[in-house]
Write a structure and sequence with these properties.
Elements (H helix, E strand, L loop, with lengths): L2 H25 L9 E3 L7 E3 L1 H8 L3 H4 L8 H7 L7 H16 L9 H4 L2
Antiparallel strand pairs: 1-2
Bound molecules: heme C (3 copies).
One heme C binds next to strand 2, helix 2, helix 3 and helix 5.
Length: 118
């Protein structure tokens, strides 16, 4: 290869990788999961969680995900593995926040059983 050929192939390389950065950064955007989830509520029946609504209201994913991974079935898996007690997330995360926000006079979620379980 002569110098000119090397310069041209370098230029091509830079152009191609430069362009490819755009779709790559798109792919690497955070996976926010399903906008609505149905959670296993045991004998009391399933619980519908408006995931997207909560993401918008809460902002910090870790408020919920500190206790279980960001993958489908993670909550049940953590309970089965004994890392979480039954109703722990329900009481300490969901209902705790709904009580707190209600007390503060802010927009809040339900605290009675049948409003969450169906
Ligand atoms: C109100 C609590 C809560 C908040 C806040 C929350 N999540 Fe989740 N997320 C859940 C629950 C519950 C699941 C379901 C886990 C399971 O299936 O066991 C879940 C599941 C997921 C999944 C797995 C895919 C799916 O659709 O089940 C991803 C990815 C995810 N969340 C990303 C996020 C990101 C990113 C944020 C912050 C921007 C966030 N979550 C904020 C509760 C929350
Ligand atoms: C804010 C929504 C919400 C309210 C209100 C609520 N729950 Fe739950 N409940 C959940 C979620 C989410 C789960 C699954 C996560 C967990 O076990 O912590 C659950 C799980 C359960 C389970 C299954 C636990 C297991 O692992 O077997 C039972 C039983 C239950 N709830 C009963 C109740 C009763 C009784 C009430 C009323 C006193 C109630 N829940 C109020 C959301 C709620
Ligand atoms: C840090 C605070 C916070 C946590 C944690 C939280 N919520 Fe909520 N939730 C809210 C607020 C605020 C609203 C009212 C949002 C609105 O209507 O704009 C709400 C609304 C709701 C509603 C009513 C939604 C509707 O419009 O139908 C349900 C059901 C609910 N939450 C279930 C849950 C469950 C289940 C969990 C736990 C997995 C949970 N929430 C965790 C703050 C929280």
């Amino acid at each position: 290869m002569n110098k000119k050929a090397i310069t041209i192939s370098l230029a091509v390389c830079i152009t191609v990788t430069g362009l490819s950065l755009i779709p790559v950064s798109g792919v690497m955007a955070q996976d926010k999961g399903r906008p609505e989830l149905t959670l296993n509520g045991g004998s009391k029946g399933p619980v519908l969680l408006k995931h997207q609504l909560h993401q918008a209201v809460i902002q910090d994913c870790a408020v919920c995900h500190k206790d279980f991974e960001k993958k489908p079935g993670a909550l049940d898996e953590a309970k089965k593995a004994g890392l979480l007690k039954a109703k722990q997330v329900m009481t300490k995360t969901c209902i705790a926040c709904h009580k707190e926000t209600k007390k503060a006079g802010k927009k809040s979620g339900p605290t009675n059983c049948n409003a969450c379980h169906s």
